């Protein structure tokens, strides 16, 4: 399969110092764009797993969820970070995977942290709410990405279709650059806040983080149960003085079914036993919680992950 959206192998982490049954095993880890949370957090995870398990992990920059599932299905990656909703679409062969059909070559390892819907707008363009995006120049994420589908669902619950906006399909970093250059009025980001691309943008430009009305959150969750309410804390970004009410999905670590039960057990165990070390590499490591990890995943867990969670009294 052609590697859609692959920016290339960026980091190759050496075989770790500690020995285990998987010593010398090599895994490819599909993450996301280099300015997003997936790539940075994935690198932190891979570094710790390499050091603790003796596994050589190649961290890959990709087009994120949809592309990552395609890579695993094609046998081109073994580990990946994805949105739980996108993985559900793939497993059932619906929505963005309707044309390709079901992809069941992967399993869940753990839900990691909330992936927050963040809508960045230029207040100078007359935007004060999501409804004001009608007619504006809006980036909805890479074409075919989970962000694009989230944007479509959210806009639809506000009575707006893609035909009602001047749609652009740009990744997080490219969207921020276009915003800086005055080529965009707003853009969608689905990532854990604070997101580097938005942090950098807010330092030099006046931005508005658009919030949801409670009724809009209820409508969205009724139609798409994978969403959950989320509050972005005040001062997450420069100039954001008040909390912002929005919604989230879950960033989830998935694995190819071809990876052995023992290897996935060791990965899952290390993920939580060394979460403090992971957090030293990226703040999202502070979100790692076994109880959170097993909730809201609508497709099967890998037997190795199940073994670990049952061992600690979960599932």
Give a short overview:
The chain has 315 residues and is α/β, with parallel strands linked by helices.
Task: List its traits.
alpha/beta; eleven-stranded mixed sheet; 315 residues; globular; single chain; 11 helices
Folded structure, characterized:
The protein is α/β, with parallel strands linked by helices. 34% of the residues lie in helices and 22% in strands. Strands 1, 2, 3, 4, 5, 6, 7, 8, 9, 10 and 11 form an 11-stranded mixed sheet that branches. It has helices at residues 37-53, 65-73, 84-92, 146-157, 172-180, 196-204, 214-223, 261-273, 275-281, 290-293, 303-311; strands at 8-13, 26-30, 56-61, 79-83, 106-121, 137-139, 166-168, 186-191, 208-209, 228-232, 244-256. It is built from 11 helices and 11 strands. α1 crosses α9 (275-281). The longest helix is centred in the first third of the chain and has 17 residues, at 37-53. The protein starts with 7 loop residues before the first strand and ends with a helix.
Topology (elements, then pairings):
Layout lengths: L7 E6 L12 E5 L6 H17 L2 E6 L3 H9 L5 E5 H9 L13 E16 L15 E3 L6 H12 L8 E3 L3 H9 L5 E6 L4 H9 L3 E2 L4 H10 L4 E5 L11 E13 L4 H13 L1 H7 L8 H4 L9 H9 L4
Parallel strand pairs: 2-3, 2-4, 6-7, 6-8
Antiparallel strand pairs: 1-3, 4-11, 5-8, 5-9, 5-11, 10-11
Helix pairs in contact: 1-8, 1-9, 8-11
């Amino acid at each position: 399969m052609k590697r859609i959206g692959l920016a290339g192998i960026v980091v190759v982490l050496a075989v770790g110092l500690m020995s285990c049954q998987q010593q010398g095993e090599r895994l490819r880890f599909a993450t996301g764009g280099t300015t997003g949370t997936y790539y940075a957090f994935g690198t932190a995870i891979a570094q710790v797993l390499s050091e603790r398990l003796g596994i050589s992990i190649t961290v890959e920059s990709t087009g994120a969820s949809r592309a990552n599932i395609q890579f695993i299905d094609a046998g081109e990656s073994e580990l990946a970070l994805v949105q739980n909703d996108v993985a559900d679409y793939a497993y059932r062969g619906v929505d963005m995977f309707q044309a390709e059909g079901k992809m069941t070559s992967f399993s869940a390892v753990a839900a990691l942290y909330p992936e927050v819907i963040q809508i960045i707008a230029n207040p100078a363009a007359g935007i004060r709410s999501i409804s004001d995006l009608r007619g504006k120049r809006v980036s909805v994420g890479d074409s075919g990405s989970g962000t694009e589908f989230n944007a479509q669902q959210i806009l639809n619950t506000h009575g707006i279709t893609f035909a009602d906006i001047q749609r652009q399909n740009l990744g997080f970093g490219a969207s921020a650059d276009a915003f800086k250059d005055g080529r965009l009025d707003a853009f969608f980001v689905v990532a854990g806040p604070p997101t580097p691309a938005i942090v950098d943008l807010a330092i030099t430009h006046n931005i508005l983080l658009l919030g949801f009305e409670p009724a809009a959150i209820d409508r969205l969750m009724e139609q798409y149960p994978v969403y959950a309410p989320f509050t972005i804390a005040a001062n997450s970004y420069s100039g954001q003085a008040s909390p912002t009410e929005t919604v989230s999905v879950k960033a989830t670590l998935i694995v190819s079914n071809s990876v052995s039960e023992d290897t996935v057990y060791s990965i899952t165990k290390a993920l939580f036993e060394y979460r403090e070390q992971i957090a030293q590499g990226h703040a999202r490591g502070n979100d790692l919680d076994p109880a959170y990890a097993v909730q809201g995943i609508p497709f099967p867990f890998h037997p190795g992950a199940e073994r670990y969670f049952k061992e600690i009294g979960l599932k």
